[in-house]
Request: fold
Amino acid sequence: MLVRRGRDRFKDQSYFLFNLSQEQLSRLEFPLGDMDKKEVRERARQLGLNVAEKAESYEICFIPDNDYPRFIAKQLNGQGLKEGEIVNSAGKVLGTHPGYPAFTIGQRKGLNLGGLKEPHFVTHIDPVRNRITIGPKRELARQDCTVGQVNWSLEFSGPFHAEVQIRYRHRAVASMVTPLDGSRAKIEFDEPQISIAPGQSAVFYQDDCVVGGGWLE
Reply:
């Protein structure tokens, strides 16, 4: 049993469902899969549901002010955000940051650094040393990566071609996926990809169906 992308590609949620088991899928229905947002709102109006007029939100639902660093600091009682170094790929210290949990791979905003000749982005996060490495966009690009805790919707005995999506708003790209021991897999992209962030999902598609996925290492 496979999950297929919804007709409304902008609202498609299949990326988040890769980890469902076959037993869970057997008990699910997706009545909105063949509808777009406009049709869903109209149907809600017909049923007298207040959600038909509800404004859309693109932020994290439980962080209404979108202040992610403040939320993290509050959850950790201030213990999780400590000042650390910002360095370049050569290890040169360029400045300081308020705490590594406030950053993600590919982030540009919030670095508060001047004097750089070109835009710089977060390329690596070292939680142990509380250090953030930054560099120009070209240093973000990677040709391959690995994922762990893979959940397979189909069985594959060897490498296979798939479209791989590494972020919710990322356009899936042609790749070669190789199953590895220990519920892991290697992904080789046809074209280098940027902002490959550990902890994000990498989902494998064939013919718009989810055939597997795991967590970026």
